[in-house]
């Protein structure tokens, strides 16, 4: 765990900034600061990880301004999406660190996640319902001295059993399109899907495939890269889930 937080996310001749430096900076400013996503899961499994994401209870503008004040000579913002509360900060060599703010499914507007403007929240349980699986819904509370939270109460058991339990709020499932692909990605990694994950594939696979369209190619390239075996397994499983001709046409375009 400590080695993950000691990762350098920005370095030049005058600066060396580590994840633990920005975590300490944000916590000292009174923010709730959590390590979220895959990193706490990997720590529990004893697996080294370089993929550390930080969630806070404030806007990306506030996070950015704190970083600007602490490091006035540099401003390595790699990307920023205020509407969704996301920012990547760091240099090209490290890939930086991803920040987000805690969200609530109750804020989804226009029946479309992609056009919703979220606002920062402070409830980790609400934020957990925005995520995909119980094994990805841990919160390592840095501002509380390093307390690991499992706000939905099922993550620890599922990590131990490598069970893929869907915990996403129905509002998110109806207004976004990526959960099918995440389920199949984790099945390809060796996770056993719980009943509700299989039910999602049955109900939403065509919805997700057609809603994502050609953007699916970006997901495939990003998550599988040179892992040709897993990529082929993912493709085969996805075709097996496609019930409608329109879905198969989308897949033909992506995998041609």
Give a summary of the structure in a few sentences.
The protein has helices at 2-5, 19-28, 38-45, 60-70, 124-128, 155-161, 170-175, 179-188, 195-212, 216-224, 228-241, 245-255, and strands at residues 8-11, 16-18, 33-36, 53-56, 77-81, 86-89, 97-101, 139-141, 147-149, 163-164, 192-193.
Q: Could you characterize the architecture of this molecule?
A:
This protein has two domains: 1-153, Beta Polymerase, domain 2, CATH 3.30.460.10; 177-256, no CATH class. Helix content is 44%, strand content 15%. The chain has twelve helices and eleven strands. The protein has helices at 2-5, 19-28, 38-45, 60-70, 124-128, 155-161, 170-175, 179-188, 195-212, 216-224, 228-241, 245-255; strands spanning 8-11, 16-18, 33-36, 53-56, 77-81, 86-89, 97-101, 139-141, 147-149, 163-164, 192-193. The longest helix is centred in the C-terminal third of the chain and has 18 residues, at 195-212. Belongs to the tRNA nucleotidyltransferase/poly(A) polymerase family. Residues 33-165 form the Poly A polymerase head domain.
Round the mean pLDDT to the nearest integer and report it. Answer: 95
Number of domains: 2
Instruction: Give the N-terminus to C-terminus distance in angstroms.
Output: 41 Å
What structural category do the secondary elements indicate? Answer: alpha+beta
């Amino acid at each position: 765990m400590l080695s993950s937080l000691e990762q350098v996310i920005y370095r030049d001749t005058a600066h060396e900034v580590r994840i633990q430096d920005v975590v300490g900076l944000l916590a000292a400013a009174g923010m709730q600061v959590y390590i979220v996503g895959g990193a706490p899961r990997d720590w529990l499994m004893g697996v080294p990880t370089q993929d550390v994401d930080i969630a806070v209870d404030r806007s990306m503008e506030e996070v950015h301004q704190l970083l600007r004040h602490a490091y006035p000579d540099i401003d390595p913002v790699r990307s920023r999406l205020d509407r969704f509360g996301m920012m990547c900060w760091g240099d090209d060599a490290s890939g930086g660190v991803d920040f987000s703010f805690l969200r609530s499914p109750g804020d989804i507007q226009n029946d479309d996640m992609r056009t919703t403007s979220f606002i920062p929240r402070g409830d980790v349980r609400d934020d957990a319902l925005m995520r995909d699986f119980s094994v990805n819904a841990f919160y390592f509370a840095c501002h509380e001295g390093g307390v690991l939270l499992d706000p939905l109460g099922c993550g620890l058991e599922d990590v131990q059993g490598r069970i893929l339990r869907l915990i996403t709020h129905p509002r998110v499932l109806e207004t976004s399109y990526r959960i099918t692909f995440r389920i199949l990605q984790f099945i390809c990694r060796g996770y056993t899907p719980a009943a509700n994950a299989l039910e999602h594939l049955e109900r939403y696979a065509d919805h997700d495939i057609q809603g994502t369209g050609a953007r699916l190619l970006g997901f495939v390239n990003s998550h599988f890269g040179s892992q040709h075996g897993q990529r082929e397994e993912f493709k085969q499983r996805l075709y097996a889930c496609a019930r409608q001709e329109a879905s198969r046409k989308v897949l033909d375009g992506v995998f041609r």
